[in-house]
Amino acid sequence: MTAPAPAAPAASALPFLPFALPEIGDEEIAEVIDTLKSGWVTTGPKARRFEQDFAAFLDEPGIEAIAVNSATAGLHLALEALGIGPGDEVITTTHTFTATAEVVRYLGADVRLVDIDPATLNIDPAAIEAAITPRTKAIIPVHFAGLAVDMDAVLAIARRHGLKVVEDAAHALPTTHSGRLVGTLGSDITVFSFYANKTITTGEGGMAVTRDPALAARMKVMRLHGINRDAFDRFTAKVPSWYYEIVAPGFKYNLTDIAAAMGIHQLKRAQGFQQKRAQLAALYDELLADLPLILPPRPAAGEVHSWHLYVLRLTDDAPIGRDALIEALYAAGIGCSVHYIPLHLHPYWRERYDLQAADYPHSQHAYERMLSVPLYTRMTEDDVRRVAAALRQALTG
Ligand SMILES: *Cc1c(COP(=O)(O)O)cnc(C)c1O
Hints:
CATH topology of the largest domain: Aspartate Aminotransferase, domain 2
Protein name: dTDP-4-amino-4,6-dideoxygalactose transaminase
Strand order of the largest sheet: 1-9-8-5-4-2-3
Keywords: Pyridoxal phosphate
Organism: Sphaerotilus montanus
Family: Belongs to the DegT/DnrJ/EryC1 family.
Number of strands: 12
Structural class: alpha/beta
Bound molecules: pyridoxal-5'-phosphate
Order of helices and strands: HHEHEHEHEHEEEEEHHHHEEHHHEH
CATH architecture of the largest domain: 3-Layer(aba) Sandwich
Helix content: 25-40%
CATH class of the largest domain: Alpha Beta
CATH superfamily of the largest domain: Type I PLP-dependent aspartate aminotransferase-like (Major domain)
InterPro entries: DegT/StrS_aminotransferase (IPR000653), PyrdxlP-dep_Trfase (IPR015424), PyrdxlP-dep_Trfase_major (IPR015421), PyrdxlP-dep_Trfase_small (IPR015422)
Number of domains: 2
Shape: globular
């Protein structure tokens, strides 16, 4: 007996519109080829240049940028450098990707997940304050979708309770809060991601930034096996190059020059990419305004939203559910995603901490009604119109 063939998606004359696509230009490609031909493909001059360019981009004296092979690695290094360990608790949002929280567990510390503010989908400062215990050591706010967390509130709580702050800025390049770029806001360490679908990409990669020279030094040592000199230092130094010392059981988190070569040119385009994303987001806002949808929260006047994601929520009285809406968009040849299945619903987190959805009513309510539609620089205005028309068709028949 053969199973019936799955129903084909409704025939569409248009090609499939993926949920995300990187924009990689001739300059990135030429720089990668230059690296491949140079004889130095792992961490070296291009990674160093990318770090210097990144610090210059943030344009704040005293900030050091440390390139790593993922944001997950950067978050792990950040918490390690801050001395987080067994017996400690770290507070973060349930409404994030698991990487934000798993790094706490790498170090044997415990995670306290808290709910979001439904207006912003960002961690709720009042919920942070309510979750603090004598074991709490740090807070990890996540700038969800690229809209800045109320960092004034988070930093004030941290100061009052003597807590460290590590910003998960995987979505937040470039994002501002009070007119200042995320990365310069005064937390201990901020970590950016250059994963394939982020606002700039190196395929895989990340950057940890800090003003504190001791934290920077610790992250640099732990990024490469706990060695007190990196391989390129040894290669270029005037002293005999074979000698090094291991000062800690470190990790293998360095960024290759091949990846950094992409990053150097992606970074130059970051502001232009943001403008394009903001224009497309504004067009979505205009086209979707009358539909039974809650549009993404907007930043305060004068602030920059990176527009990493365009996250819609169905209103409570919408005529169809979220899953059916995603199916309808897929049938129209449009890729979508959901950001996120909150951590309190995943078996590992739910079982480890005996979490109940009822304890996260705002995240749960948002999750059940949310979908992310395509928003990236290679989209045209016609692509946005096509997505909006498919949403209209599905929601108004
Ligand atoms: C992508 C992402 C990460 C992890 O980034 P990687 O570079 O893939 O390790 C962490 N947190 C959030 C919120 C993310 O979206």
